[in-house]
Design goal:
Chains A, B: Residues 85-203 form the GST C-terminal domain. Chains A, B: This is Glutathione S-transferase family protein. Chains A, B: It comes from Emcibacter nanhaiensis. The structure is a homodimer. By secondary structure, chain A is of the alpha+beta class. Chain A folds into two domains: 2-76, Glutaredoxin, CATH 3.40.30; 86-191, Glutathione S-transferase Yfyf (Class Pi), Chain A, domain 2 (Up-down Bundle). Helix content of chain A is 49%, strand content 8%. Chain A has a four-stranded mixed sheet, with helices on one face. In chain A, α1 packs parallel to α3 (68-76), α4 (86-116) packs antiparallel against α5 and α4 packs parallel to α6 (158-167). The first copy, chain A, is globular and about 45 Å long.
């Protein structure tokens, strides 16, 4: 069985939980805190991920794979979650690198600051810049989704999973999703896919 | 023929020039400025990349592919620059996502601030933080390369190209590479690979 080194507040970890659920692959989780340094211990750095981050999937033979989108890529190979067409494969990659460079550092970080740090954190000063850059990323998604059901081709793929994770909880970072009807319809479509599980189990 | 929407100062664009050279694929380039807004014109956003960034490869049929590491992935398929083993493929992805999230935003941005902005730019205040995070990324590379010739498996791959681009010019961002003998040896190995071209043509 796979072991997911996990955190319930991490959209990056949720990506992996969602795909494993939709693939019907059983796994257990080990939970880590976000701000308690538990992913930066010498043991974690030596044995799980030298970059000190979750998610990491530990395989039954002990090998560990880090980086959420690399994990999605690994498990999606030869499944319906990754296209067979070479151009569409590259487009999946384009959206996943876009997510990590131009979306997550703003949309996820705003959520982190507003939900995980004290109300008087000086990092609240970052919110206007995070919103400016996060809205720019959301606009690019909205423009694509206005006349397409999914981000690549005609099918739900790991590109959608990668972008869905933090987009569907963007309001926790005080982003206003009412401006983006196509994104909201896409969120609804993803929630209806087989094997869907919510990010927060109580939802 | 392919058209690379390019900038000579961009390590992300250089990744593409290097791989296309090593694959022997002819291409022409269109140059853009880094700070003149030329990648944010309405025409560029509509026709080349809605995210307003280079590099972008334009195919003979007019389709455009953005995100440097997605471009590397596309062209490396079924070549010696991408492994055939599924685990090693995932490891290539892990390093490429690491590069875009944990390396480039620090190592590349320090170079940008110190070489492209005025000496009195207030952004120089970012340098200590960029160095702290950039050195953390370089240490992870050094630890891997201390007993391996390349980042994944035994072979030069697009993971090496992705990390080489900004690492080998890190000193332009005032990073001290003398601390990292394994990285320096790896840089030397890459410079000896067939079809290698330097980032700056005059070098």
């Amino acid at each position: 069985m796979y072991t997911l080194h996990d955190n319930t507040e991490s959209g990056n970890a949720y990506k992996v939980r969602l795909l494993l659920s939709q693939l019907g692959l059983p796994y257990r989780t080990i939970q880590y805190g976000v701000t308690d340094g538990s992913t930066r211990t010498p043991e974690f750095l030596a044995n799980i991920n030298p970059n000190g981050r979750i998610p990491v999937v530990e395989f039954p033979d002990g090998r560990c794979l880090a980086e959420s989108n690399a994990i999605l890529y690994y498990f999606a190979q030869d499944t319906d979650f990754f296209p067979s067409d070479r151009w569409e494969q590259a487009e999946v990659m384009r959206w996943m690198f876009f997510e990590q460079y131009s979306h997550e550092p703003f949309v996820a970080v705003a959520k982190f600051i507003l939900t995980m740090l004290p109300a008087d954190s000086p990092r609240r000063a970052e919110i206007p810049t995070l919103h400016e850059k996060g809205y720019a990323a959301l606009k690019i998604m909205e423009d694509r989704l206005r006349d397409h059901d999914f981000l690549v081709g005609d099918s739900y793929s790991i590109a959608d999973i990668a972008l869905f994770a933090y987009t569907h909880v963007a309001e926790m970072g005080a982003f206003d999703l009412s401006r983006y009807p196509a994104i909201r319809a896409w969120i609804g479509r993803i929630k209806g896919t087989p094997g869907y599980i919510p990010m927060y189990p109580e939802d």
